[in-house]
Amino acid sequence: MDDFSDLELFDDESSQSQASEPYLLGFVIANIVGLRYYHGTINRREMVGLVREPLNPHDPNAIKVINVRAAQVGHIERSVAAVLAPLLDSFTISVGAIVPKPPNTPKPYRLPVQIHIFARLAASAFVLDALAGGGLSLISDPNPGFALSEAAIVQEKKPDEATRLDDVFAMVGKNDAGIVPLEPPKDIVLTELLPHQKEALGWLVDREDPCNLPPFWEEKDGGFCFLLTNHQTSDRPEPLRGGIFADDMGLGKTLTLLSLIVTNRPSYTAHGSKKSNSRKKPGGSRKKRKLNEEDDQVSGPRTTLVVCPKSVLSSWVTQLEEHIQVGALKVYLYYQERVKDIEELKKYDIVLTTYNTVASEYGSGASTLESIDWLRVVLDEAHVIKNTASKQAKAVFALNAERRWAVTGTPIQNRSSDLYSLISFLRFEPFATKTYWTSLIQLPLHKGKESGMLRLQSLIGTITLRRTKDTCCDGQRLVALPPKIVETCFVELSAEERECYDEMESQAQSIISRYIDAGTVLRHYSTVLYCILRLRQICNDVALCPSDIASLLPTGALEDVSNNPELRNRYLSMIEDGDDFDCPVCLSQPEKVVITHCAHIFCEACILKVLKRTNPPCPICRRQLSRSDLFLVPPTKTSNDNEDDLQKMVNFDRPLSSKVKTLLKLLITSKEANPSEKSIVFSQFRKMLILLEEPLKAAGFRVLRLDGSMSVKKRTEVIQEFGKNGSHSSTVLLAALKAAGAGINLTAASRVYLVDPWWNPAVEEQAMDRVHRIGQKQEVRIIRLIVKDSIEERVLELQERKKRLVGGAFGRKDPKSQANMRVEDIRTMMHL
DNA sequence: ACCGCCGGGTGCC
DNA sequence: ACCGCCGGGTGCC
Q1: CA–C1' distance A34–C10 (Å)?
Q2: Which protein residue has its CA closest to C1' of C3?
Q3: What is the structure's pLDDT at A821?
Q4: EC number(s) on record (predicted)?
Q5: In the structure, how far is the CA atom of residue A387 from the C1' atom of nucleotide B7, in angstroms?
Q6: In this structure, is the CB of residue A37 within 7 Å of any atom belonging to strand B?
Q7: CA(A799)–C1'(C8) in Å?
Q8: Are A121 and A153 spatial neighbours (Cβ–Cβ below 8 Å)?
Q9: Is A751 in contact with A701 (CB distance < 8 Å)?
Q10: A256 is near strand B: CB distance < 7 Å
Q11: Phi and psi at residue A552, to the nearest 5°
């Protein structure tokens, strides 16, 4: 099952293809009403934000109007809101708004506003109808062909948005001339920071209490002016505390963040129990706070919430243990079992949790994480929230914190909308409000206007720090790494293996070419993947793959009960209740267990015999049964059945597969040359790793294994163990490609074997980067094992093509952006 | 008068 | 709001 986890058919990129970018349909005139009830001020020709208010008790269609300071100005009049709300809620349109006339003094009751309507070309007819049906007249440009020609321009311009976005970070660093490198307290952060990390720390500390006005604000006649919308106010705008920390992978972001947490630790009263309502007033405390300043009055929040993907948790734990003085920081792992006591959690310096944990509490009405005012929230691998509609994104948006950080090694994935989610998380007003983002950034950008690009650069430039491994620091490359050599070792199959492979491949080819001819590949995607999977397995070892491919096709195989959670739970509870387990047909313990839709249990063989009769009934309850009512129960995961089977398979006196033999030979040769050299063996197949363990041990290697099924704690232990040196230390780590997620440091090794190729080169690259990163002192040798004349060679071909395709500057290292296989790729891989 | 008309109260959503 | 709308008071000429 795990092998399929990344193989979504379409990523979101394809669903919002270039042709479907919103364009300006025109605008409607409406009134902002209820101005007398709110304090939000507004100036002439000022842009305002429109925000849906579905929970408004007076009108579920309510749309409120806010200014750049997010202060409410009024509402859109009811009749217009009634038309727009459904279109907004269904994401059919997006809107921007501008107040054309200056409000009179004294304050009027209502104010006309132009609402610009944006829609995708495909939806425009529907939107026009809906607007007309609601009695709204849409005004488009005097030029009657405006809307369409505009759309055409947008489509023409769109393809190079990606290229132009490469420039977004051009500004980053340009404003940073004034960065002063900073040392963290040495008694707590035990590791000496590298020069670029000290610079980053200086920048982070500065960003948490910035002196300058936020971008696009200007001081003017004793007041303040937001230049982009002409908003004037006498209140100083709140500074944005935090930002985007987007250094490349491997530059030590986690260590730098830990240093920030230590360095900017507020001082507290004894146990900070009295509630602080000293929310920073605008204009107050403009002066830089001195570090570690004694201040008995401060009793604000002390806790930093770190949210990261599960795969990175262990890396945080490891880095804490490695770099931070024991006991200096109180850290709580809020994951699985977790304390719900808010006051208790507030006593920690760091609460470490995952996106899924935050998401699982979101909207429950009793979210512990949401009810705490955090000192800061750090989102690690923040690009995971790029979809603002996802539950994870919504959940982290709801977190309250004085300071907010989005941390990512892959900040831009070729679309400005990915940046929006980060801005939105940072609560970087007014851009965090969708209507402002759309009108101030997104739209000018799509129209190809320079202003959009300049604005985006300027705002990203102020709040982002990004360096790559190639960035220079005092004329030196930030990170000088020893060389990395990638070589390919071709494996010849034995005659026996070759026969099996060819047989399987021609079966698979005939199945898949039939789908391709019928144009139904995508509908049979899982079958296709199954075929490909099997072929890849045979290249590793025939034992990974049952011999008859036909029996593996969905039409032949019974569905797995894990696809039917309700039934699976019933089955599990039946086992727990100690129900009798024997097959009622043959009265013995079933070998392969099948559970029926009516929840009765049989041997697979017995119930299949029953099924051969006409109109077969369930032998127990007499209900009619068909094949689709049967679900195969896999051996229980928690038991060792699976591994025992594999061990049996390994010890069955079977000759080793060609690939295993080759790998062994390579390992033995390098061991003879250098007995203490450590190697990592990556495979996508957990079974392959298990299968390798015995032969390696038999050949005298000390072996460790790291795979996705291990707990966070166990993984951390394994990585630590692997890092140890000495005559009894382990020299080979068998690792699942995916388990080596971002952040894991495997620099103890200097040799990497990629046992099987992954069609997305970025995934392999990520795995290699775990070894070839800061801290690596030796030359790194990477050896990929490829079976000649097989699907593996074609996977290499595919990789090359993908690499050429994404030659651009961004997204290159983002495994997600090219995670999916398309029909053309399938053709290549199947030699069709 | 199951109306028209008058004039006071009232006012976002 | 110098409006519209609501609802109570009122009622031939």
Answers
A1: 35
A2: A109
A3: 65
A4: 3.6.4.12
A5: 58
A6: yes
A7: 82
A8: no
A9: no
A10: no
A11: -95, -10
Distance from residue A342's CA to nucleotide B12's C1', rounded to whole Å: 39
CA of A799 to C1' of C12 (A): 98
Nucleotides of B under 7 A from a protein CB: 12-13
Q: Is residue A153's pLDDT more than 50?
A: no
| DSSP assignment string, A126-193 | HHHHHHHHTTPPPB--SSTTHHHHHHHHHHHHGGGHHHHHGGGGGSTTGGGGG----PPPTTTB-SPP
* Domain A656-830: top CATH class: alpha beta
Name the nucleotide nearest A104; use CA and C1': C1
Nearest to A507 by CA among A545, A544, A540: A545
Specify the CATH architecture of the domain A19-140. Answer: 2-Layer Sandwich (3.30)
Closest listed residue to residue A620, CA positions, set A602, A637, A608: A602
Tell me the domain boundaries of chain A.
Answer: 19-140, 168-269+298-476, 656-830
| Six token digits for residue A155 | 């489509």
Structure tokens at A17: 């293809």
**Nearest DNA or RNA nucleotide to A35 (CA to C1'):** B12
Nucleic acid strand C: bases within 7 A of protein CB: 1
Q: Give the Cα separation of A535 and A410 in Å (integer).
A: 33
Lowest mean pLDDT among A299-303, A469-473, A487-491: A469-473
**Spacing of A61 CA from B3 C1' in Å:** 37
**CB of A75 within 7 Å of some strand B atom:** yes
pLDDT digits (tens, 9 = 90+) for A252-305: 899 999 999 999 988 644 343 333 344 343 443 444 444 444 444 457 889 999
Q: Is the CB of A109 under 7 A from strand C?
A: yes
CA distance A803 to A801: 5
Compute the half-sphere exposure of residue A119: CA atoms within 13 Å on the CB side of its CA.
Answer: 26
A168-269+298-476 matches A656-830 in fold:
yes
Spatial CA neighbour of A247 closest among A48, A433, A112, A406? A406
CATH of A168-269+298-476, one of 3.40.250.10, 3.40.50.10810, 1.10.340.30, 3.30.1490.270: 3.40.50.10810
Q: How far is the CA of A79 from the C1' of B4 (A)?
A: 30
